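Let's do one together. I've listed all components of the complex below, 1224 residues spread over four lines.
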Amino acid sequence: MSENAEKLPRQPVPALDEILGVPFKVLDDGFVRVVDYMGSDQAIVQAARVSYGEGTKKISEDRGLIRYLLRHRHTTPFEMCEIKLHVRVPMDCWRQWIRHRTASVNEYSTRYSVAIDAAQLTSPGEWRTQATENRQGSAGNLDQKQGAELSRKETVLHRQAREFYDECLAAGVAREHARRELPLSTYTEAYWKIDLHNLLNFLLLRMDSSAQQEIRLYARLIGEEIVRKWVPFTWEAFLDYHFNSLHLSSLEIQVLQAIGAGNQKEALTRAENFGWLEKSGKSLKRNRERAEFEAKLRLFNLPTPW
Amino acid sequence: MSENAEKLPRQPVPALDEILGVPFKVLDDGFVRVVDYMGSDQAIVQAARVSYGEGTKKISEDRGLIRYLLRHRHTTPFEMCEIKLHVRVPMDCWRQWIRHRTASVNEYSTRYSVAIDAAQLTSPGEWRTQATENRQGSAGNLDQKQGAELSRKETVLHRQAREFYDECLAAGVAREHARRELPLSTYTEAYWKIDLHNLLNFLLLRMDSSAQQEIRLYARLIGEEIVRKWVPFTWEAFLDYHFNSLHLSSLEIQVLQAIGAGNQKEALTRAENFGWLEKSGKSLKRNRERAEFEAKLRLFNLPTPW
Amino acid sequence: MSENAEKLPRQPVPALDEILGVPFKVLDDGFVRVVDYMGSDQAIVQAARVSYGEGTKKISEDRGLIRYLLRHRHTTPFEMCEIKLHVRVPMDCWRQWIRHRTASVNEYSTRYSVAIDAAQLTSPGEWRTQATENRQGSAGNLDQKQGAELSRKETVLHRQAREFYDECLAAGVAREHARRELPLSTYTEAYWKIDLHNLLNFLLLRMDSSAQQEIRLYARLIGEEIVRKWVPFTWEAFLDYHFNSLHLSSLEIQVLQAIGAGNQKEALTRAENFGWLEKSGKSLKRNRERAEFEAKLRLFNLPTPW
Amino acid sequence: MSENAEKLPRQPVPALDEILGVPFKVLDDGFVRVVDYMGSDQAIVQAARVSYGEGTKKISEDRGLIRYLLRHRHTTPFEMCEIKLHVRVPMDCWRQWIRHRTASVNEYSTRYSVAIDAAQLTSPGEWRTQATENRQGSAGNLDQKQGAELSRKETVLHRQAREFYDECLAAGVAREHARRELPLSTYTEAYWKIDLHNLLNFLLLRMDSSAQQEIRLYARLIGEEIVRKWVPFTWEAFLDYHFNSLHLSSLEIQVLQAIGAGNQKEALTRAENFGWLEKSGKSLKRNRERAEFEAKLRLFNLPTPW
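Okay, and this is what the predicted structure of the assembly comes out as:
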C-alpha cells in the first residue's frame, strides 16, 4: 500500500439495494428478505489481490479472476462478503437450516414472546409420497382425494394444538413450557448472517435435488433472487464450477481411461476389480457406484462397456 | 522434546471408563451416556507445558496449574480434551442445545427413519407457570388439579398427533413430510461431540438458573455425573472460578471503592451519576443495574448506601 | 413482521465513513485502516429485538438494551456487525494475531510476490527488558547506550538478511524458499474481517496489559479509534462491563463475606482452608491467588485480614 | 436405543497404538508424532448409523458405508474422530499450517521460554528455483555449486541471527522482544488437535502438488504413516474419491458431451462460446481453462477436438 492511501468509499450493489428489506414469499407463509450486506464481486477481487500483492485491474479481468478462484477452491476471498437475511421458516425446516454452524443467528424467542400463530399447512395436492429408491426423500404426490382428507385432518390438528397452547398460556403456564405442544410445522423467524463462502456451501447442499423440498425452495430463492443480484460473477462461476459440475472418482477415471483408449476388455477388467460387476444369476447385481458411473457415461454420450 | 521420545500410552480415566455406555436418565424418557472421550486433567497440563516448554511435574502442581489456567482464561489447553455423548432429548430442548455451534453432531434422521415414538409428557404437578419479573423464565407450578386437567389434554393431543403421523405414513406420505405434524415435545437422539473448553461454556450457560429447566437438567447431569469424574481438577476449578464466581462492573467497582473507604456521600454521588438513583415520587425507580449491585452487596454482607 | 415490510435502507455510520480507507499508523511502519463494515449499534438492537419479538424503540432505550446485553453476555446480537480491516503488521506480531480463529483473512503472499521490504526496527530507547515476576512479559527498557549498540547491530542484521534474500532471488531461488531467511520482524499485510462479538474478545485479550506491547498497540488503536466511532454504545458498555470489570472467584466471595460481616476470624479460617496462608518461617509464603485477592481488597479500599 | 444399553468399551486401534508417541522425522530437524486419538473407522459407522437409526452391521458393510459417506460428502460422521499430534515445524511452514482454523493448538511460547535453537538449513542440492508458469511455486533446483555457496551463507546468517538473539537475552532484553530477530526458518513446536473431517481437508490441500514442499512433506507423512493406520477404510476412500478424483465443470461437461456424441463441430462451437479458442495470429491464445480441459482429455485418452 502506498503511504497516501486513498479513501475507500463503501461500494454499494445497486441491484441488491433495490430489494433491501423486501420480502420474497416462500411456502404458504414464509419469506426471505435481505436486511444488510457487505462486499461485492469487487471486494472478492480486492481481497484476492492483497494476497497477490497487486493493485486494481479492469472489470473484464475481475470476472476471470473470480472464476479462477472458485474453480480452484481458493475460498478465503469469498469470506470477505457478508449478508444478513431475515427469514420466516417452519421449525421443521429450520432444524435443517441451523445445522450450518458458520452463520450468526438471532431467532425469535418463544420463551420471551408468544409463538407465531402460523403453521405450515399442506394443500390437498401437495402431500408428497415416500421415495422408494432414496430412503430419505420423497417422490410424487398423493392423489387429490386422499390429500384432501389429510389436509382437513391436518388443519384440525393444528387448530387443536394451538388451542391447547393458548389454553395453557391462559392458565398461566410459562411460554417456555407451553410451546412444546406446538407442531414442528409452526413458523419461526430469524436474522441469519453468513459470509459468501459459507453461503455457497449452504446453497450447494440445499439447492440440490436430494435436499428436502421446503429448504430447497428457500435455497433456490436465495440463490436466484439474491446472490445472483449481489455477486453476479460469483453466482455464474458457482453454477459452472460447483453446482452444475461433477466429480469423477479415481475408480471412474481408470475405467474411463480404458474406454477412451477403446480398450473395452481393460475397462471390464478394471470394473470387475472394483467389484462393480458381481452377478446375481444372469444379471448384474445392484451396485450403487456402478450405477452412478453409468449415469455419468450416459451424460457424456459415451457407451457403457458392460 | 528429547530426541528419543518416549512412547506415549493413552491415559485412561478409570472413573469415566466405568460409566462408558451407561445411560443416565433425564426427564421422563431422555438420557445421556458417554460414548468415548480423549484426554484428562493430565492432558491439559501436558498441553499447557508445551506452551511453557517444560516437562512433566508432580500431580500436586497439576492441580495448581489447572486452577491457574482456568482462573486466567487460558482456554486453549482445555480444547485438548474431547468427549462424545449419546443423548436423547425432546426436540424443543434440542433446539436450544444445537445453538452451540462448536460441537460435532449426528442426529437421528426422521427423513430416513420413522420418528421415535415418544414425546415428553408433563405430570400434573409439573406445569410451570410464567415468571413475572423474568419475561423468559418460569417460576413455580400450577396446582395439581389444574395440572391434572392439562396433563390429560396433553396426552390426548400427543396421541392424536402420533395417530395422524402414523396415518400419513400408512397412506404413503414421505417421512420427511409427515414428521412436521409431530409436536416439539417429540424425542430425538444424537451423538454430540465437543471439546472440554466449549463444553464448559455450554455448562456455564445451561446449568445457570436462567436456563430453561429441561436443558438445565441435562447440563447439570453432564457436569456432575460426567465432567466431575472425567477431569476432577478442572471441574472443581470451573465451579470456583466460573460457575460460582461473579463479575463486578467498572461502575460497581467505583461505588464499592467509596463504600470500602467509608465515604457514603461519594458512594451516593457515584451511584447518582450512573443513573441508579432516579426517583419516582418518594421511592427509587426500578433500576435493574442497581438491583444487581444491591444483591451483590447483600451477598458480601456490606451495607447498601441508599 | 407485518406483510407490508418496509424497505430497509443500509444504515451508514457517518463517523466511521469519515475514516474509511484512512491508515492509522502503528509501530515504525505498520498501519490499520477500515476497508468496509456492516451494522451499527442499531443493528445490534434490531437483532436483539427479533429475539424478543418487538418493534423498534427510541434511542435512549437502545443504549440501555445494549448495556444489558453486554452485561449479561447475550453475545449473538453482536455477531450481527462485521468489520473488515487492512493491516500491516510485523510477522512476529501477526503470529499472535492469527491465533484468533474466528476471523476471515487474506494475507499478502510471499510465495506469489517479493516480500515487503520493511522489518520492524527497535530505536535505542525501546529495548524492553525481561519481566521477572511475569515470565512471559517485559518490564522497563535498557538504557539508551546499551540500546544504541543493539539497534546498530539489529540494523546490520536486517540488512544482511534482506541482502541474502535478494541474492537468493537473483540466483533464481523460488520466493517461497528464499523468504525463510527473513527475520520475524518483517512486515506483512492482510485483510482481516471479523464480527463485533469476536472483535471484542480479541480486544479484551489484546488490549490487556499482559498482552505483548506490539499487538497491544494495534488493539488499543482498533478499540479507541475505530470501534468507539463505529458502535459508541457498545464500546462504552464493553469498557464498563468487560475491559474494566473484574471477577471474584467463589473463594474470594467467601472471604469477602466474612470481611463484610466484620468477622475477621472467619475470614482467616476460610483463607487458611483455601491454602492461602501457608507460612515459610515467620512470613507468609508467596501465593498467587492470595496476592490477586489482596490487590482486589486494596482496590476496594477494604482491609486485608491477615 | 434399548433401555438396557450395553456398556461401550473404548475401541483402540492397535496399529495406531503401536506408534503412539513415536516421532516421524520430517525435514532436517522436524517431526510429527501422535499423542492421542479418539475413534476409528467403526466410530464413523456408528455415528452414521445413529442418523439412520440402525444398529451395528458386519465389517464388510462398514467399508461400503464409509465409501458411500465420503463419496457423497456426508461429512459429519468423520467429525466424530479426533487426533492430537505433536509437531516440530519451521515457523515459515507453521505460518501456512495455522491458517487451518478448525484445529486446537498449543504452541511452544517464545515469550515464556528461550526459542528452540534450531533453524531449517538448506543443503547445497536443495535450493529450489522459481517456477515460471506457476507464480507461487518452485520447480527444480539450483546446481550444487551455486547451492553450496548459498548454503554456506545461510549457515553464517543463521549463526549471526542466533548470536544476536543470545546477545540480546544476555543484555536483559525480554524474550518476547528478542525473538523477532530470528529467521522464519526457526523451528517451533506445537500440540495440534483436529477432527478427521477437517484433517482430510488439510491433507487434500497440503498433500497437493501445488502446496509448498515443506508442508507437503508433513502432510504426506501424516496421511501415509498415520491416517492410513488409524482409519484404513477412510484413507482408501479419501484417496479414491477426493485426493485422486477430479472435477468436471459445467463447461467441460458440455464439450465432453459433444465429443462423446462424436459431434466435433458442436464441441468446437461450445468451446468457442466459452471463449476457449481465441486466436493470436495463427495459434490459439493461452487459455488456462482450455489447458485444464485438454489435460483431462489426455488423461481420459480422448482426442482434443481443436
